[in-house]
Amino acid sequence: MDTLTADDIEALCLGATLLGTGGGGDPYIAKLVAHQALETHGPVQVVAAADLPPDALVLTTAVIGAPTVILEKIPAGTEYVSGVRALASYLGKEPAAIMPIEVGGCNTLLPIATAAEMGLPIVNADSMRRAFPQIEMTVFTLAGLPAGPLSVADEKGNQAVFETTTNHVAETLARTAVIQLGLANSISCYPLTAAQVAQHAIQGSLTYCTEVGRLLQAVKDGAEGAWERFLDESGSKKFFTGKVMDLDRRTTDGFARSTVILEDLDGLDATMRIEVQNENLIAFVDGEPVITTPNLICLLDCETFEPITTEALAYGNRVVVIGMPCAPEWHQDGMLDLVGPRAFGYDIDFVELPA
Amino acid sequence: MSRGNEFRIGIDVGGTNTDAVVIDSAGSVVRAVKVATTPEPIEGIRQSLDQLLPDVDKSLVAKAMLGTTHPTNAIIQRQGLDTVGVLRLAAPSSLGVRPGAAWPADIRDMVIGASAIIEGGNEYTGAEIAPLDTDAVRRFAAEATAAGCTAIAVSAAFSPATSDHELRAGDILGTELGSAFPVSLSHQVGSLGLLERENATILNAALLSVASSVVDGFGEALAAHDLAVDAYLTQNDGTLLTAAEAGRFPVLTLGSGPTNSMRGACALAGVNDAVVIDVGGTSADAGILVDGFPRESTAAVEVGGVRTNFRMPDLISIGLGGGTIVRDVRAGNGSDLVIGPDSVGYAVATEALCVGGSTLTLSDVSLASGRLDGFGDRALVAHLEAGLVGDSLAWVDDQVTIMSDRMKSSRDEITLLAVGGGAHLIAEQVPGTSQVLRPLHYSVANAYGAGIAEASGTVDRVYSYDRTSREECLDDAKELAANAAVRSGAHPDRIRITAITEVPMTYVPGGGCRVLVKAVGPLA
Amino acid sequence: MGSERPVTVEQMLASPALTEAELLAGETGLHATVAEVALRMRLRDDAPPSPGEFVVLDAAGIGEHTYQVDMAIRIIADAGAVSLVVTNPGFELGLGVRRLANRFGVPLIVVPDADALHLTHRLRSQLWASDVEQASAVNSLLTTLSQAHLASVDRVLEVIADLSASKVCLLGQDRSLVAGEPVDIGDRRLASGAAHLVDNSAAEALHSTPIVLTFGERAPEADYWLVAESGASRGMQRLLRSLMLIGSWHLAALLSSARARTESDARRRIAVLNELLATSDLHERDIRNQMLALGWSAAGWNTGLHLTLRGADTSRIIDLHAEVRERLRDAGLDGPLVERNDGWSGWVTHAAEPAAESYSATVRQLGDALDAFVNAHSGLQVHAGIGRPYLDLNGLRRSLTEAHEAALIANARIGGRSGAAHIDQLGVQRVLMGWFGSDDFARYARFILQPVLDVDSDHELLRTLEVYLDSSCSTTEAAQMLGLHRNTVANRMRRIADLLGVSLDDAENRLSLQLACRMLRIHRQPDSIVQNALH
To answer: What angle do CA A165, A171, A174 make, to 5 degrees?
Structure first.
C-alpha cells in the first residue's frame, strides 16, 4: 500500500467499522470527509515509519467530542489541520507525517483527510488497531511515551496546547477543554519521532484495516469461501450466532454502558452476554467469560455481515459474534492494567482467544 | 360537543390502484371503490371520486384525506423535480462535507443547482457557532437564481434545537427573492443529524412543484363534486398534514403508503399492536404497529439513493411473494431448492404453473399444499413432489418467523396481520406471535388508513438534565409537542403523547440528553 | 419445632426469613439438598462454593456489574452448589440471567430489602436447627442413662417420652405391655429383624425398635419392642427414632442383665428343688441349708402346688416366673416357686395343720391367680394341682407329688380350659394315675378307638363319645353340652357303636371306652406332661 485514493475509502471504512468493535464512532461522516479531501487534494502517500528519517516528527490527529454532536457539527477539516499545526508550532518543528492514533471507528479516516489537506504522507501505523474510549489506552502508554504535549482545536481557530504529567491527566484535561469547545473537536497528541513510531507503534494498521475490510466485503458479496478466508486471515473465531433477546442501555459518567443478551440460534440453548462501554469489552457464554478486552468482540448481521454498532442494535437482531485478536504489540507488560478487563472495572481475568 | 354522523373520504394512490373509501363516524366503511392508477394521478383521483360519491350523502362529508405516491415516484423516476439552491449555515464547521456529497450523481446533478456553506448555525449549547453571515445569504440568493434554482433549502447546525438562524435566513431570502419564492427550512422538515436533515430539506424543496400540482388537483377534484371540505394529506407516520402544509412539506408525505396500509389493516382487524406482513407478488414487507402507529426507523432511510433522517416507518422487505420463482436445482439425488429472489411479479396471474404458465412460483407451491385456495387449477400442480412443497413452505415459514421476530421489540407475543395478495403463504401459526389475523377488507386498507389518520406534533431537542430536572425537561418537551399537534389541527383536549425517546449523549458530562416527543390527537 | 433434614432449596424458600423473596428462575433445582448456607460478596472460579451450598450473594458487592450474577450462576452450577439468593439488587435481573438460571437449574432468588448477613444467619440457623435440637435431646438422654441410679426400664421410657413428647412403652414378645404408658398398637406392624420401623398407616406414626437379647445363627427375633406413638412433625419423628435407638441399646443391656439374674436364680432354685424331691435323709441337713440360702422354709405344714403351662414355648417359663409368683402372692398363696420343665412347683407353709375345709378356699385362690394370669396372656393355659398339707421336708416332697398328680388329672379332666384341682377332691380318680402313666395302656386305648379315629379326622365322633360317657350316657345332656340336636348325638352314638363293634349298654365297655378317651386326650398333649407327672 503506497498511496490511498478515494477508491480505497470504502474498504477502509468497512474495516474501521469492524475494528470499532461496536463503538468508535460511526465512520460514515469521516468517510465523507476523507472522500472529499482525497478528491480535492489528491491521493495520500502511505509510508512506513522506518522509511522516514529517524528524527522526523510524526503527529497524530483524531476527533474528540460527543458522537451525537458530531452528527450536527460536521468536521470542517480545518480544526484537524490547525490542531496539528498548533502542536507543531509549540514543538518548534514541522511534522513530516500524520499518523492515526486509533485505527477503528471514525478516527481511522479523519487523519487521512488531514494528511491530504496538509500534503503530508500518512504513517501506516497506529497505537490501538481497534477502538478504545480513552486517549491513554495506547501501546505508547505501555512504552512509557507521553501523550503530551497535546493540542485540541475547534473549527473556529481556538486551540489549546497542554503539557501533561501523565497520560491519564492528558485524557482528563482534553475532555474538559472539549466541553468548552463545542464537543466536536480535534486532538493531536503523542508527538513522536519516526524512530519512536517505528519502535513502539502498531505497524501496518492501515493495511490491516483495509485488508479485513476487503475480506469482509467479499463475505458481504457472497464470494465462495470468503467467510473462512476472513476468519483465517484475521485470526478470528466465530463464538456465537444469536438473536438479541434483551438490551439494557444506560449512561454513567459520560460513558454509554450497555448489556446485550443473545440467545443462540444454533439450538444449543446457550446465552451470550456482552458488556459494553462505548465498545464491546467482555463476552460471556453461559456466565463464563470467553472474549475479553483488549481482544476484539465484533457483531455482524447474520445475513448482510455488516458490522453492527451497539447504538444500532435492537431486539430481534440476528448476529454473528466473532472474537478477533488484538494487535500482537499489545502483548507486553502493563497491557492488562491499561486495557484489560479490570481497567474497565470488570473483576475478570483476561481470556486468551483459543488457537 | 356532539355532532351528528360525519363522513370522511380516504383516498390512497398506489402504484397500481387508486382506492377510495367513505367512512362514517363509527369507523364503518360506507362505500369503497378501486380504480386503476392513471399516468396522471389526479385523473385517477377524479375517477375514484366519480365512482365513490353518487350514492353518498355529500352533505355529510366533512373531511377528505389523501395518501399518495406522487412525490416518491417523482424522486425515484427523477421527474418533475425542482432545481434547488442549498444553503448551509454552519461554517466554519462542516466544511469537510459538501452538500449532496453522498448523493447519486444523476439526482445531484439534476436537483442541486447551487450550494454554499456560510457562517452561522449553533452549538449544542445554543450558542452561535458564528453570527449569521447575512451578506452571504443575500449573495447566495443571487447565485442560486442565476443558476436557475426555483427553490432554496436552508439548513443550519442544531436548528431543531435553535431555529433562529434558519428563520432569519428565510426572511432575508424572502426579502431578496419575494415571499412567493419557495424556501424550505430544515428544522421544519427533519430532526437531528445535519447531513440527513439537509438532504431531506433539499428533497422537500425539489418536490414543491410536484406537491402543489397534487394539492391543487386534489382540491379541484373535490370542488368538482361540490365538496367544500377540509383536505389533508397523510404523512409517513400515519398522521395528517393540511393540504396547505403538504404543499410546503411534501417530503413528509414520502412513504405514507405502507403506513396507511398498516394502520388501515390494524383498524379493520380491530387491533392496536401488531406485526403486519404485506405479501405482494414480488416482496413481503413487514412493519410493526405499536399503539396504533408504525414504529419509526432509527436507521437512516434512503429515498432514491439519498440518505435522510425524517420519520419513516420501520420496514423490512424481503424477496418473498406470490410470484417468487422456485427453482429445483438437482444435485445428485437430493432436491436442492433456490427460492427467489426474482419473481414473475404481477405476471403471476399468467406465468404461474397453476394458471397454465411455465414458471414454478411460490403460489403454485402454496396451492399444492392447500394454503392457497380459489386461484389457479390444482390439477396443474398435482405433479409437484411433496418434498419440494414441504421444503419451500419451510423456507417461507422461516422467513416469516425471522421477519416478525426482527420487527418485534420484545419477546412478548404479538398479533400478526397477514395482508396482501400473497398473504396465503403465511401459515396459520407463526412462532413468536399470538395469532395470525387476515382482515377481510384489506383491499381498501390503504384508503381506510388515510381516512382514519390523526393530527400530530413532534419535538426533537437536546436538554441538559443538570440545569433542569429530567421531569421538567420532559414536561417541557411534551408541552411543545402537544402545541405542535394542536397547530396541526388536533383537538386540544384529546391529545396523547405517543412516543418519548431519550438518547443520552455520551462524552457529555452533566446529563445532556436528546429528547424526542410525539403528540397525536384526532382532528378537532 | 425443628424442620427435617435433609432440607431442600424449596423448603429453605418457605422459610420465614425469605417471605419477601421472589423466585425468578431455575425451578428445576428446587429439590436439591442444601448442605450449607454461606454469604458471599463475590463468586470466583478460584474460590468456588462447596457442593450443596445455598449461596447468598450480597448485591452491594456487585454494584453495577450485573454480569457477576451470570458468572455466579455458572460457578454455582459447576461447583454443585444449589441456589443463588441475591440480596438488595440495585438492578433488574433480566432475561439473560433468568435464562441462564433455568438452563443450569440453579434457583435464582431475589430478596429486595434485606441485611444479607442477618438473612444468612437466619437461614443457617434454620438449616441447622433440627440438628441442634436433636443433638441436645440425645445428649439429655445419654446423660440420664449414664446416671446409673436413674437407669431403669421405666426411667428410660419416661425420658424418651419426655424428650420426644410421645407415648412410649415396652412390649414383650407377645406384644403385651411390659412397662411404660400403654400404646394401642392394634394390628399395626412392629419392627421385625433388627431395624427400626415407622408405621405411618394411621394418623399417629407408630415407631417400634426391636430389642434382641439372644443372637444366634438364626435371624434375630425381637424379645421386646420399644414402641412409641407420635403425631409430631417429621423432624420430631427423626428425633424420636434416634432416641429410641439409643434407648433400645440401653434397654437391651438392662433387660439382658435382668434376664441373666433371673436365669441364674432359677437354676439355683431348680437344683435345690430337684435335690429336695430326690433326697434321702442323709442329706437333709444340706438341703435345709440350701433352702435357707434361698429364703425358703419347709418347717411346718406344707401345701404343695403345681402349675403346668400350655400354649407357649417352655423357654418362657423362666420369663413368666416372676409374674406367676406375684399373682400367687396376690391371691394369698405366698411361698417359694420353682421353674420346672412343664411349669412351676411351689408351696405355702403354715405353722398349724390347715383344716380340710380350707382346701376348697385354696383351690379358689389358685383359680383366681390362674384367671388373672391367663387373662393377661392370651393363648396361654395353665392347669394347676394342689397337694394335701404335710409336715416338714418329707411332707413337702409328698405334697408336691400330690400337687403334680392333681395338675395332671386337672388337665385330663378339664382339657382346653385353665383350672385348678385339689388332690383331695380327686379321690378315686387317683386310682387311674397308674393307667394314665402307662404307655402300654396308651397304645391299647388307641387300638380300641382306632376304628373311630380312622373316620374321624376332626375328632367330632370322639368328642361326642367322650361327652356322652361323661354325662352318664344321657343323650339329652350330651346334646346340650355339644350344642347339637339330641337325634344327632343319638345317631352319632349308633355309628360309634357300629364302628367299634361293641354295645354301650355294657358298663364294662363304657368304662373301658371312657378311660381310653381320657388316655387319648392326655397323650395328644406333649409327652413331657405325662412323664413329669410321674415324678
So the answer is: 100
